[in-house]
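Severity: low
Component: inverse-folding endpoint
Summary: output formatting inconsistent between runs
Steps to reproduce: submit the following structure tokens with default settings.
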């Protein structure tokens, strides 16, 4: 079996998304959360990490561990998957990750590409749009950790790296891979260390993937280019030789750690049918007391009906907590509480979990000690479903916080029923 591409994703939900699309193309693509779980038995492997919001030095350490494991397993090409809107800060972590991989592989310029047209995120003339608006004027400006105040990605990414960032725009990409590839080479000759490619539509994705495959490349991109790149590289691989994954059986619960109006509406709809517990991050009982109380609250529902435990709150609640804990402190406390509660629920029999929020997903998977999962191909709710196989399988639906309809939590639980 060929070993074509090792992908390091900056969060767990994104890792599952790209793996789900790659699996749907008939390519075996496991998702790993531990470098020790990377083995040379798949043409493409995606490593889910938590490098999006942790300090740069920690992110680079995690990237180095995964990269070393990929190289040792024989994966010559490496890529870094960021989210569609390239969520980050002026300090990183996308630019530092790109520089690390470029230095590790000895390849420049790095090909960079943000956006996901299917979900309303595009890049045109280097400007990032989210649902038809400049990202700085969209709901993304309220993100508590990565508010994205500058829609000019060339300018924004230039703050994260000492190497010049250049642009190949949509008009050039329309001329085809030959012209666009020549433009990349010309910009590299002028000293560009990174070249950002517009992503105005799906055709831009295919042209960018053709350029990336035409020569050894370091790719730092959002989902569409990573998926197209992986599928092109693995075209010679026979159809997926692995049997399709199956969901686990047993009690189910929802864990929601994201914030904002989207998850609040989803929890309201879920709460019309099932119980919901909302945690206070400033609970005077402290972490241990809050966790114990949540598990005690949940115990009567386990096996009787689904339920949800959440730290989601409105803008006023977020401001109140962040004023005392800081944005990062508030996020880390929520992740610790929900991860610990998820572990406690599993110990009490819960085998199916719907988890809302990329960082929360990372916390839950880490707390459960899951090293690798098999992603399900895209279904009625898209991607994000997976199962950790073993003597006692665990089914998960890891959902990005701002995606999904109002009834997504209920629908996810229905779709996670094990076949009879």
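Observed output (run 2 of 3):
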């Amino acid at each position: 079996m060929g070993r074509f591409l090792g992908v390091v994703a900056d969060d767990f939900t994104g890792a599952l998304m790209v793996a789900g699309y790659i699996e749907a193309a008939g390519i075996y693509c496991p998702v790993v959360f531990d470098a020790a779980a990377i083995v040379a038995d798949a043409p493409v492997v995606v490593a889910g990490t938590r490098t999006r919001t942790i300090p740069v030095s920690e992110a680079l350490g995690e990237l180095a561990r995964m990269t070393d494991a990929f190289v040792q397993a024989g994966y010559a090409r490496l890529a870094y998957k960021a989210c569609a809107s390239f969520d980050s800060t002026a300090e990183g972590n996308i630019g530092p990750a790109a520089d690390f991989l470029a230095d590790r592989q000895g390849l420049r310029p790095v090909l960079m590409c943000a956006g996901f047209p299917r979900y309303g995120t595009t890049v045109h003339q280097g400007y990032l749009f989210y649902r038809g608006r400049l990202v700085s004027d969209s709901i993304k400006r309220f993100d508590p950790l990565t508010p994205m105040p500058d829609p000019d990605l060339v300018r924004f990414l230039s703050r994260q790296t000492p190497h010049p960032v250049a642009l190949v725009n949509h008009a050039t990409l329309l001329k085809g891979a030959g012209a666009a590839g020549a433009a990349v080479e010309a910009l590299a000759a002028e000293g560009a260390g990174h070249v950002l490619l517009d992503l105005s539509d799906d055709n831009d994705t295919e042209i960018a993937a053709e350029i990336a495959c035409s020569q050894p490349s370091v790719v730092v991109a959002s989902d569409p280019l990573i998926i197209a790149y992986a599928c092109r590289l693995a075209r010679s691989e026979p159809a997926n030789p692995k049997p399709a994954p199956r969901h686990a059986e047993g009690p189910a619960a929802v864990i929601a750690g994201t914030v904002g109006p989207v998850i609040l509406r989803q929890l309201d709809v879920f709460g019309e049918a099932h119980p919901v517990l909302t945690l206070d991050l400033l609970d005077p009982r402290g972490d241990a007391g809050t966790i114990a109380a949540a598990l005690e609250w949940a115990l009567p529902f386990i096996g009787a009906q689904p339920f949800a435990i959440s730290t989601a709150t409105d803008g006023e609640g977020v401001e109140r907590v962040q004023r005392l804990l800081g944005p990062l402190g508030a996020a880390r406390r929520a992740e610790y509480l929900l991860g610990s509660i998820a572990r406690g629920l599993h110990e009490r029999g819960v085998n199916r979990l719907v988890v809302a929020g990329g960082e929360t997903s990372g916390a839950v998977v880490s707390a459960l000690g899951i090293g690798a999962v098999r992603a399900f191909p895209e279904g009625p709710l898209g991607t994000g479903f997976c199962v950790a196989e073993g003597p006692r399988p665990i089914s998960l639906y890891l959902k990005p916080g701002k995606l999904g309809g109002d009834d997504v939590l209920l629908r996810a639980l229905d779709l996670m029923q094990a076949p009879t």
